[in-house]
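Q&A log
Question type: sequence-to-structure
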Amino acid sequence: MSTWSTIPAEHQDLATHVDLCAQRYQALDQRMESLELKVDNLVTKVDDVKSSIFTTLITTGGTIIVALIGAVFTIISHIK
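Response status: OK
Response body:
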């Protein structure tokens, strides 16, 4: 990460200072936009993973319930 430094002419000329500040703010704005895009992509990926995990849990839970019901019916049918 770089730190902003001033140049000697910036101390003497307000117009130079204003121009350099505008360039610095433009660079910061570009970096912020890039960061926003990365965060948006990360949020999308997290949402996809959450959806996938939810589907897996529902499928696994359903399979366990069906297996338990099958086991109960098997036990009941062998008792008689």
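Response note: The chain has two helices and no strands.
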